[in-house]
User: What shape does this take?
Amino acid sequence: MEEIKARKQQKENHKNQQERRIINQKYINIKCEEKNQKNHLEKQIQKVVKRQIENKVKCQKGITLLALVITIIVLLILAGITISAITGENGIIKNAGKAKEEAEIANEKEILEKATVQAMGNNKYGNIEEAELQDELDKETGEGKTEATDIGEEFEVVFKESNRYYTVDKDGNVGEAQDIINDKNPGDITVGQDGETLAGTEAEPYEIWCIEDLVAFSKSVSEGKDYYNENIKLMTTLNFHSSLSYSDTNNKYKYDETANAYIIDESSEKTLKELITDENGVGFIPIGMSSSSVENRFRGNFDGGNNEIKNIYVNTKNNAGLFGGIFLATVENIKISGSINSTDGSAGGLIGNGPATIRNCSNEAIVKAKQAAGGFVGEGSWQSILLENCYNTGDIYSESSNAGGVAGSFAGKINNCYNLGNIEGSAYTGGILGNVAGKIEIVNGFNQGNVKSKGWIAGGIVGFEYAEATVNNCYNIGNITTEGTIVVDVRSKGIGGTYINNCYNIGDLQSTRACYAIGDKTINNCYYSAILVGEVEDAGNIEDISQLDEKEFVNLLNSYTNEGEQTYPAEWKKWKLGEEGYPVFE
Assistant: This one.
């Protein structure tokens, strides 16, 4: 009897467990359905927000944004969505703001592109004129809502209501939207946009928002502050020709020759913009003077923030560049354009003189110097350190020796860099490096510019090897010329270097004496196809590939192996056949 009761109780318990499981599952299903409905509602509302904003921007009709947002908030709260989901970092209000901004920008660009096309079409030569562009903008937006300004190489168009501007180049290409910055503390890089004090650390770098900030930064280094181990960041693109890059274009300045600096002087007749862009003046004062000048050199970390400095003009007897003199500093993430000239020293697009780490930079400026000249560094030193992921398109000139597309002289390592500009000097000219300042390795580099020495020794990659120079996995397609009359040292070299591995040259060589299709030192697995005018003196492991199949040539380069490991070096880029019919890097 007791056994029957136990079985009956067990059966009842099992039945209860099943009922509880069914109830729990129904509850879970209901909650999941509620969550799905909430997510679906959020997505639908975001779509409505974006569509309504776009309609408002384009048509200026319908419900106001404020009323729309209030309505949505009420609906969401009734739906049980939390305030944080509405107002948080990824909340619906913030997403709505982004959608509004994106719609405004799209509309402004559409207006500007249409006005640009019309202005070009109205001009009998197909050019863009400031007055014609402004007329077309007025037709699209109404008078007084935009302002077009010709600043030389491009136009700037301001949309006054949104406080944004765009650039339009002479070919009619419209740039990305940029906010007009109002620097409340021009000339003080230690104070942020909201008045906060900056520490100069990596987390709180000193900030450059306008050209007045850049000028003050240069002046502070001239006065003895080297910013050792401190951080400075460029917060926006600056254009020396643009009034929008200056905090106040009405302030009067003068150039103080004794201090070698610009200072405010209300008795002056010229603004900072007028002085600093005057090609009869000294232009921008480079930051620092020389690596050996303890009281006037930069020793910090400068981050360009992937911004540009456009139309810089430097004309000084000292070392020239954005930086004149530095010592063991870092410069990265910046693009330079304009004209840089040293009448008595060295010049580079970024740095005139001194050892540095330089990453992710590009130079379009024309660089001229009495002494060493380079796309990024004029004169390095035996400590030069590192140049990485940089390219130069500006022409480089040296009145004497050491001219290079990347550096006039350098030591350490040059990695993943290339040159497209023309290089000219009296001696020691190279597509990448003019002269070796100390032991160096160049990896994954190429030159497309023409390289010319009026005296002696020019090379597609390296001009002169003052010290050991290893050139790995590089190529040259530029023409190399030496015009000197000295018998001993007149040489044109397709690559150049003391150890040259897995390289090729297809640039033509011309010399009043010796021509080397690759180089005159140790060569391994190198190839050429070039016209050589002069005494051809190549020796070593080189092969004429003019009769090779193009794909076979690529395979030969990719088949290179380390002597010890029998593998393709991990740091070297692999090759592919380029559109022009010669191997390029993948």
Confidence is low (pLDDT under 50) at residues 1-8, 56-63. Residues 206-542 form a domain with the Pectate Lyase C-like fold (CATH 2.160.20.110).
